[in-house]
Specification:
The structure holds 2 protein chains of 2 kinds. By secondary structure, chain A is mainly α. Chain A has 12 helices and no strands. Helix content of chain B is 25%, strand content 36%. Chain B has helices at residues 40-48, 90-100, 105-118, 134-146, 164-181, 192-198, 216-221, 226-231, 329-334, and strands at 2-11, 14-24, 29-33, 55-60, 63-64, 75-78, 152-156, 184-189, 201-206, 209-214, 236-245, 249-254, 258-263, 273-278, 284-286, 294-306, 310-317, 322-328, 345-351, 356-359. Chain B has a 6-stranded mixed sheet, with helices on both faces. In chain B, strands 13-12-11-14-20 form a 5-stranded antiparallel sheet. In chain B, strand 1 and strand 2 (14-24) form a beta hairpin. In chain B, helix 2 packs across helix 3 (105-118), helix 2 (90-100) packs parallel to helix 4 and helix 3 (105-118) packs across helix 4 (134-146). The longest helix of chain B is centred in the middle third of the chain and has 18 residues, at 164-181. The chains are: A mainly alpha, B alpha+beta.
Amino acid sequence: MTEHPQPPRRDGRVEVATLTLPPLVWLVIFFVIPVLILAAISLSPAGMTVEISPTPSLEHYREALDPFYLNILLRSLGYAALATLLTLLIAFPAAYFIASSPPRRQVWLLFLVFLPLWTNLLVRLYSFKIILGDNGLVNQVLQALALVSEPLTLIYTPLSVVIGFVYWNLPYMIPPIYAALERMNPSLLEASMDLGASRAATFWHIVIPASLPGVAAGVILCFVPTLGSFIVPDILGGPDSMMVGNLIAAQFGPGLNWPFGSALATVLTLLVTVGVTLYIRYAGPGGQPGRDGRG
Amino acid sequence: MLELRTISKRYGDVAVVEPLDLTIEEGEFFCILGPSGCGKTTLLRMIAGFDRPSAGQILLDGVDITAVPPNHRDLNTVFQNYALFPHYQVFDNVAYGLKVRKTPAAEIHERVMAALQLVGLAGFEHRLPAQLSGGQQQRVALARALINRPRLLLLDEPLSALDRKTGEQMRTELADLQAKSGITFVFVTHNQAEALSLASRVAVMNRGVFEQCSTPQELYHRPQTRFVGDFVGSMNFFQGVVTEVSANRLAVEVLGQSRVERRGASEFRLGEGVVFGLRPEQLRVSLLEPKDYENGLFGQIERTLYLGEATQLCVRLSNGERIEVKVQNYLMLEDKVMGLEPEERVWVIWSKGSGVLLHD
């Protein structure tokens, strides 16, 4: 890293513009415009369905902030947080193991991490019905070992939803943590030991901080899609594990209340955008104040 | 104080370090010099505890530490790439060893400040490593190691990542630091100038063995092997046969015709094949035949290289062998051989006391 970075050259601006233009166009067409349409629909007066009204109303937002719906939103945040935490607890040792394997084995282990993505999520979630069902694999094993007499109710519970999320998220959490650990200079570990630190102290003082950029990226990659997910609770959840994603999907589907669905979606989008921005600013990759002198 | 007993390291069939013995005394600035891949870094890593020797023992102050993990060895390492902790400020990097040993905060503060003062980095304690130049990072690495007051400081090519000027400056500072701290230094390098200028003793390592272990002066003036002569400085070598041995004189025939004579007694036998080594700066060129106190070889100049203070010449001898000569230019003027052109025929001469004879 140079001590005094050169100011960007003036003649580099054309290149920068050329390189940033395609993603910018893509973002505008597929993100900004749809969100604006959604926001416009959400401002329709009560009773209207799909049309964009000339006289905006906040009616649907009032409804969205009703305690009943707020409760669902809070539950979604809770599920997403819990699922992300559990994913992290499983993904970290896995990523650490992969990063400390010989290079050839690393390729194979990463291949195994990505392997589930070759199959449609829907199919994989239905297979969890078989695993977690009353006569499913888990219950059969537990009964065969005489650990339980009656089958446990696993499926269609908050537990099965969280299990589903953890399963879904793992291939998105392991790679960024692996990448961060793999990038770490291995002589840092030797330097730490050399200075008298035990293995545990070295892990805590050196490995964990080195992994943080990857952990931060992994947390975003897992938390955000989980928060808005409707397919996992739809398949593995019961009536009391409805999440905000299911609620929104219902408004656009059977509920036929696009303006209300749009209001919910807008609230969720705002929440995620503000949350992720704050997160990146204060905890995200390279964003911790003072960590790289930019804080 | 540090003793290696028939220590060796093998990876499968490949011997990286052949069984070797070494004793380093208290307060020494010991240097292990060798080309890359000679096993010097592996040797250092075994002393530090990062690699386990395949056989042999390491003793520190008479205690066998062969099986002791690195964090329980009373020594510290300065790594080639410094291995500073990127997420810690300079202060916390230097304080690391004291912190993990649960030193009181007030003492840590005092000792870190003193260590930074020692390496000339007072006022830098809140910088991150990435905000420092290579030379400054090097000083942080030194402070981080020396603050623990180790019995032994290991340095793995600490100057090789620095630009030449900074490296030479750090060389002086390293010598000062060692003198001030009195800590025994073991320094690994491939740079002979660093080894010669810093070390009290140098071990030249090649293919996993010590070729020679002696003072820098001895190493340069009396290399014991062809490798040492060539690796430390540069040297011209000739095959020869001993043709005359007496109490105070030795004659060797090189290139089938020239007689090379040396004064003084020697351990060589009549008829023995030898290698005769001459450093370029021991040679002069002349248009006149050698005097009776000189030896000489006749040849043709192949090229000359003007270096300012000296001239470097390559002279092709009658049998096609080449000899490198480096002569101070004031001597070239004195001998009236300044401005010689390629193809000119000259004598390459040296005094009969010069050169080393090695067993073939």
